[in-house]
């Protein structure tokens, strides 16, 4: 797995494999346990295919009771567990362990309840993102977060990574659209956090769970917010002669107080790849392309389209085209949402990064990325959520060329360091996983990391849930609780100790 270092395998667990597999089969009978190596290979990687590991064993539970019993067994027997959704994660969040149970939640695939009066839906974690919208669209509702992989990614995985999408600028990410979850702890306890109400008093435990990457518990039910489809939605396609012009336009639109439903940007390599793949009608004589969608009442949308068009012209726009039909609007988005597979047609391999920067830094960061690309001798195509500064550089490489993967990893690390350097963060929606794990020190101090690990310890004291992800150094919970003794004198000696 290239230079990636994962926690050492537990020799005792490996020796007890037959015993562990038999115990799991007793809990999840029939076809619920996969232990054959050839059959497990489909689970050896997620969307970050540069890293692979055949699982120790795969379990596919169908009931909450089975999830609880499997987790309780693993807790009592010191067996690691890696939760997995649809496997579309781009950060290695579902990368298996050689000595860990891979728990696939894709048999939890039912919509349990739709409450239009309260505008919520209750679904199991294996339901696809798009599946929620499909279940409610007949009444004019939809689920707002829409990752490009929405046809395949599961809502449980969205919760784990705090997934976003092209319309999250206005309507928020997963954390802004999830009202409650049912969570099973590593000890096998079933707890509920949040519900159908808008908010709750006390600590924001729901905020902890969303984006926790399967490290605090296994989600078995999700309550999501439903939104009413807007009266009107139209998109404007804007081409620019330079990336600087496009970046300035983004800042000017937001600075004017206009919050589009979506605002996406693509550079020349991405434009050409997407157009060749989808034939969406993108202009090919521009360096950068913006897709800006406005939604709401028709009069408001028409007015905002005029304002955005004027701002674009003031920033040297070379091409402006407004969608006149719903089919045309969807075609604009089809190219953007197919950008990742489109780039896969022009390069044997690519690595999709995910950093977020202040909008004003877009021109500088894009220029620096091109300089880095020349330095590393690798191509890069940029597709990103311009409105909220969430970058998705696609680093092009060939894994069959010795050293190419290492260069791609180093290039990606430099991009993420640049994001932090200009005031941004390491990830916007893909999560940390293993991809950004060893860069966490670029953004957080040791004190920051220790506090995050303490939260992990409160849920999982033995650190059995998805170890090797997010934290570059896996301290034991006992180490974090250590006490400094100076010259034989403990602090606060008058406090009773147990």
UniProtKB/TrEMBL annotation:
List the EC numbers from the record: 1.1.3.15
One GO term in the molecular function aspect is: (S)-2-hydroxy-acid oxidase activity
Write the record's keywords in alphabetical order, separated by commas. FAD, Flavoprotein, Oxidoreductase
EC class, as a word, reads oxidoreductase
In terms of PROSITE patterns, this protein maps to:
FAD_PCMH
Q: Which residues form the FAD-binding PCMH-type domain?
A: 51-229
What cofactors does the UniProt entry give for this protein? FAD
Keyword check for rRNA processing, yes or no: no
Judging by the UniProt lineage, the source's domain of life is: Bacteria
Full protein name:
Glycolate oxidase
Family annotation (SUPFAM superfamilies): FAD-binding/transporter-associated domain-like, FAD-linked oxidases, C-terminal domain
């Amino acid at each position: 797995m290239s230079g990636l270092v994962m926690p050492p395998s537990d020799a005792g667990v490996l020796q007890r494999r037959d015993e562990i597999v038999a115990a799991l089969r007793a809990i999840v009978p029939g076809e619920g346990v996969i232990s054959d190596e050839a059959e497990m290979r489909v689970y050896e990687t997620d969307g970050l295919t540069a890293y692979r590991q055949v699982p120790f064993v795969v379990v596919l539970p169908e009931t909450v009771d089975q999830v609880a019993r499997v987790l309780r067994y693993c807790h009592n027997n010191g067996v690691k567990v890696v939760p997995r959704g649809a496997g579309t994660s781009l950060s290695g969040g579902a990368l298996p362990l050689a000595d860990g149970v891979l728990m696939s939640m894709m048999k939890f695939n039912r919509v349990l309840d739709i409450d239009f009066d309260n505008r919520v839906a209750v679904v199991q974690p294996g339901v696809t993102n798009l599946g929620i919208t499909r279940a409610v669209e007949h009444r004019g509702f939809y689920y707002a977060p829409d990752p490009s992989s929405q046809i395949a990614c599961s809502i449980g995985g969205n919760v784990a990574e705090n997934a976003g999408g092209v319309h999250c600028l206005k309507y928020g990410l997963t954390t802004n659209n999830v009202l409650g979850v049912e969570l099973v702890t590593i000890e096998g306890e079933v707890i509920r956090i949040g519900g159908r109400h808008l908010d709750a008093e006390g600590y924001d435990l729901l905020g902890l769970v969303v984006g926790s990457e399967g490290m605090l518990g296994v989600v078995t039910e999700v309550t999501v917010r439903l939104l009413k489809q807007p009266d009107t939605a139209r998109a404007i396609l804007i081409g620019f002669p330079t990336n600087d012009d496009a970046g300035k336009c983004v800042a000017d639109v937001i600075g004017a107080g206009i919050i589009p439903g979506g605002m996406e940007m693509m550079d020349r390599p991405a434009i050409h790849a997407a157009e060749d793949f989808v034939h969406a009608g993108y202009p090919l004589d521009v360096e950068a392309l913006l897709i800006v969608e406005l939604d709401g009442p028709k009069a408001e949308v028409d007015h905002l389209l005029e304002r955005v068009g004027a701002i674009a012209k003031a920033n040297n726009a070379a091409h402006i085209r407004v969608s006149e039909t719903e089919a045309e609007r969807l075609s604009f988005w089809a190219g953007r949402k197919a950008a990742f597979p489109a780039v896969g047609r022009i390069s044997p391999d690519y690595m999709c990064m995910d950093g977020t920067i202040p909008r004003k830094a877009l021109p500088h960061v894009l220029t620096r990325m091109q300089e880095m690309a020349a330095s590393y001798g690798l191509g890069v195509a940029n597709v990103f959520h311009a409105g909220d500064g969430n970058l998705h550089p696609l680093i092009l490489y060939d894994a069959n060329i010795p050293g190419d993967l290492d260069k791609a990893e180093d290039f990606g690390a430099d991009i993420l360091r640049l994001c932090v350097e200009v005031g941004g963060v390491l990830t916007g929606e893909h999560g940390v996983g293993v991809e950004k794990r060893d860069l966490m020190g670029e953004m957080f101090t040791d004190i920051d990391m220790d506090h995050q690990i303490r939260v992990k310890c409160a849920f999982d004291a033995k650190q059995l849930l998805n170890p090797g992800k997010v934290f570059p150094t896996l301290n034991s919970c006992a180490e974090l609780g250590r006490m400094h003794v100076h010259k034989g004198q403990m602090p606060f000696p008058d406090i009773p100790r147990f």
